[in-house]
Amino acid sequence: MQIAGLSFTTTHTDTALRSNTSAPAERRITPTTKGPDILARTRVYIRDIELGGNRFVVIAGPCAIESETQIHDAAALVAAHGAHILRGGAFKARTSPYTFQGLGLDGVKLMREAADRQHMPMITEVLSERDIEGMVDIVDAFQVGSRNMDNTALLKELGQTKKPVLLKRGFAATIKEWLLAAEYIIVGGNDQVVLCERGIRTFSNETRFTLDLAGAVLARQQTHLPVIVDPSHATGNPSLIPALAAATMAAGLDGLMVEVHPDPTVALSDADQALSPELYRGMMEQLHLLATVMGRPLT
After folding, report:
1. Tens digits of residue pLDDT in 197-210
2. Which of 233, 247, 236, 255 is CA-nearest to residue 145?
3. Distance, CA of 198 to chain centre
4. Considering only CA atoms, which of 199, 216, 187 is closest in space to residue 145?
5. What is the CA radius of gyration of the chain?
6. 45-294 in CATH: which number?
7. Can you name the residues that pair with 87 across neighbouring β-strands?
């Protein structure tokens, strides 16, 4: 069988996963030594922006939506220098319950206004299946964060929507586990799934996580799904992000998600890893040059 486009051998007592029923199943799933012959890649459309084609797509914006002024300033900044899709968090999954948790649905509405003013699509994270109904008519795409990659109830509900879903890899997940999480969305009838590598936890503590660029390339080679990279969460270090953005494009991946804040010194969430306006502009200038060399449109 194929899981999210990746070939697996399977033994089972029923077809629970494939038929999307709740019947129990016993499975032994092991990757084959050779990936599938992918004749056509899935094109994912976040409004009018295509992922999975030749264009390199940049998704940019603040970690969290903090106020009306901040999200409008951020949207104007990222749009002015070539980002295609606005990102921002309204519901924040934080390690500490005492840190900023986001503005909730009010933040989603503020982000919608900011994105519309810049004529951009927008994507934001959904934390719970209970929040989908209130968000589905506002957002252009849902993001599933690393902490929720194994939230099968949420993944199943997103499979029932027709909105694109950006699925981040869990920071302790194998590639097979990541792809199986994507399958929960796909078997529900929604094939508009983008995979996002955002760093995995290793023994190293010099960076926030370790960016598994090889894993991202492998996922793209062995599936039909678009694969992008989030170097902001992977490194936690803005000075590293421009180089990793260039590496992402050079590796033939489909796009990039980065955190950009109009003034990182006052950011309420992940201030240390946000790109400043100056670093963001420099990164985009570098990507435009590389895109010209590689023959990949960025505009």
Report:
1. 999 999 988 999 99
2. 233
3. 8
4. 199
5. 18
6. 3.20.20.70
7. 123
Domain boundaries, the chain: 45-294
Q: From the centroid of its chain, how far is CA 105?
A: 20
For 130-143, give one letter per residue: b (16+ CB within 10 A) or e.
ebbeebeeebbbbb
Contact between 77 and 260 under an 8 Å Cβ cutoff? The reply is yes
**pTM for the predicted model, two decimal places:** 0.88
Highest-confidence segment of 11-15, 203-207, 227-231, 266-270: 227-231
Residue 114 and residue 131: Cα distance in Å, rounded?
21
Q: Crossing angle of helices 105-117/68-80, nearest 10°?
A: 40
Query: Whose CA is closest to 166, among 131, 139, 187?
Result: 139
The answer to whether 35 and 7 are in contact (CB under 8 A) is yes
* C-alpha distances in Å from residue 150, one per residue of 4, 77, 181, 225, 268: 16, 34, 7, 19, 27
If residue 8 lies in a helix (H) or strand (E), which one and from where to where?
A: strand 6-11
Asked if 229 contacts 257 with a C-beta cutoff of 8 angstroms, the reply is yes
At residue 119, what are phi and psi to the nearest 5 degrees? 55, 45
Whole-number Å distance between alpha carbons of 270 and 279 = 16
Q: Please tell me whether residue 131 adopts helix, strand or coil conformation.
A: helix
pLDDT tens digits, one per residue of 125-149:
999 999 999 999 999 999 999 999 9
Contacts of residue 30, Cβ cutoff 8 Å, sequence gap at least 6? 8, 9
**C-alpha count within 13 angstroms, C-beta hemisphere, residue 185:** 31
